[in-house]
Amino acid sequence: MIKSVIKGIGRYVPENIVTNEDLSKRMNTNDEWITERTGIKERRHRKNRNDSEETTAFLGFKASEIALKNAELSAKDIDYIIFATLSPDYYFPGCGVLLQEMLGCETIGALDVRNQCSGFIYAMSVANAFIKSGIYKNILVAASEIHSFGLDFSDEGRGVSVIFGDGAGAVVLSATEDENAGDILAVNMHSEGKFAEELCTKFPGSKFGWSDRMRREPENVTNKEVYPIMNGNFVFKHAVTRFPETMLEALNSAGKTVEDLDMFIPHQANLRISQFVQQKMGLPDEKVFNNIQKYGNTTAASIPIALSEATEQGKIKRGDLVLLSAFGSGFTWGSVLLRF
Ligand code: COA
Question: CA–CA separation, 223 vs 221, rounded Å?
Fold first, then answer.
């Protein structure tokens, strides 16, 4: 039987640290408000907001290089790329092809996944299906975001811009028939499109006009269209309901219980959401990994960044039962339960 094992993991974040104190110099906010509501103390922003080199694909490339080294594989060994992001280098094409070129892979397939905070879960689910069906042997799953170029750092945008940060994570998912190796035991994915506008960026999009409006009437394109908007309270309430649902679904379908878990890595949306879910599920502190304090919400990249840090710190070992879950814009949510 073919199993899907995580062979290598990598992460890369820009060097530039932006503290809550730094943000309070740019807008009317403060460390106390941000810490109390989100748990975030600092995040990374690429140094130059308009940098054309330190892009989303570039961050994904740096994380992928580390994941490949960690897996003891070369770019030529990869037979498929899946790239999850909501902040691509171009409106089109997606970042997958850019990563293929940067790494020097063969002319393999490169798929882009647009599922925002759930992007990594969706990407891993697709990778797992390709591996289990015997189609591909080594799939590179990269997730990367540059949020800092597209946030509203005026007072109007402060409820959103303090939350998000830049960063990337990547894993190599490989086929194996080794009975002692890890495997993906369960996946689930969900969506509820009626809430699309509760957390979204409208522009550029076919619904709200694009080049014509920008050319003819740029002054009428508002902050609410070009920057992300979020109904924070609404998102919070749905997140704390959907997280436990998808977690239990994954555990049940693999015949496992919460007690069997060695580690839970939630998408790093907000420390308060993670703590709420942890409490609801009855998980002890040592079985939940959070690092949002240092990176903010890096959307699709948050789970692989956390996975990378948790393994590096020895908090996840080979053979551990690990649950990854996410909720976000769409709304979309889902889980991957794996034996590491
Ligand atoms: N600094 C200081 N004050 C701020 C602020 C900031 N960065 N952002 C908003 N405020 C103000 C608001 O203007 C409002 O002021 P008012 O009462 O005078 O009108 C007040 O703080 C409360 O705003 P509100 O939006 O009701 O706060 P909240 O308690 O709902 O917290 C979030 C806001 C975003 C932290 C919270 O709703 C949340 O965490 N939601 C989930 C979001 C999330 O996780 N998104 C990721 C997607 S997966």
Answer: 7
Q: What residues does ligand 1 touch, defined as CB less than 6 Å away?
A: 29, 33-34, 37-38, 117, 158-159, 162, 199, 230, 232-233, 235-236, 269-270, 273, 297, 327-328
Atom index in ligand 1 nearest the CA of residue 116 equals 48
Domains and CATH numbers, the chain: 3-176 (3.40.47.10), 183-197+228-339 (3.40.47.10)
How far apart CA 104 and CA 115 sit, in angstroms, is: 26
Among the atoms of ligand 1, which is closest to the Cα of residue 232?
37
Kindly state the tokens that stand for 139: 């799939």
- Per residue of the chain (340 residues), what is the pLDDT tens digit? 999 999 999 999 999 999 999 999 999 999 999 999 999 999 999 988 777 789 999 999 999 999 999 999 999 999 999 999 999 999 999 999 999 999 999 999 999 999 999 999 999 999 999 999 999 999 999 999 999 999 999 999 999 999 999 999 999 999 999 999 999 999 999 999 999 999 999 988 888 777 677 777 777 777 778 899 999 999 999 999 999 999 999 999 999 999 999 999 999 999 999 999 999 999 999 999 999 999 999 999 999 999 999 999 999 999 999 999 999 999 999 999 999 9
Strands across the sheet with 167-176, in order? Answer: 3-12, 167-176, 138-145, 80-84, 109-113
